[in-house]
Amino acid sequence: KGIPADARQNTVIAPYNDPEALERILSEHKGEVAAVIMEAILMNVGIMLPDEGYLKNVREITRRHDVLLIFDEVKTGVTVAPGGVTELYPVEPDLICLAKSIGGGMPIGAFGGRRDIMSHINHSEVLHLGTFNGNPMSMRAGIVTLTQVLTPETHAHANGLSKQLASAYVGIIGEFDMPMHVAQVGAKGCAMFRHQRARNYRAWWDIDMDLSFAYWLFLANRGILFPPGFDDQWTISVQHTQDDIDHHAHVFQQFVTELTR
Fold first, then answer.
1. pTM of the model
2. Beta strand 234-235 with 188-192: parallel, antiparallel or unpaired?
């Protein structure tokens, strides 16, 4: 609902972590596809990491078919690494979209890419207009966030705490033999109610949603606030401390204990 029929008709869905399917789709629609738009690491479905070599394969396939590759790094930009996914994996997209964390809490969005593509944004080809474009306060917040707040030291701090929390989760899950697995990358991480690692969106529907909601609610009632949805992740900030991680792990252990009584 709410999506025009033309939008659906002009979009082809390719499953994540399946380069063979992407190759087949681009071959079947040769000369018809302008771009592949994707989250390089899937989020809003917990966290689904790319298989080894998957992003490299996607880059090779799109180049072979002369199709642009666009990474949506709205959620991964500067949270999984200072340079986002493109720092973690040796893959260079043609365009990239950023938002959220790059503004330090201020409303912000940004995109960039190859010079030959970006040069089309001018007064005679592609107009890029907007009431809030270049908003001075958001731009200043972005500069301060990227140059003064998110330093190498604070990245190491947040990523280290995130790894520690993930390790605590793995230990508790193993101790109680819970049907769960943990995914963690940079400052982000999550627990998913599924034994095997989820590799694509379809696998998300194998997850126990009722149990996921109970987990989300249990933590929220004890002061651990994930984003408003049990399909999301934790994000460790520069303000979090060791005490926060210890409290989170303790509450998760309480949840599992209650669940297994």
1. 0.92
2. antiparallel
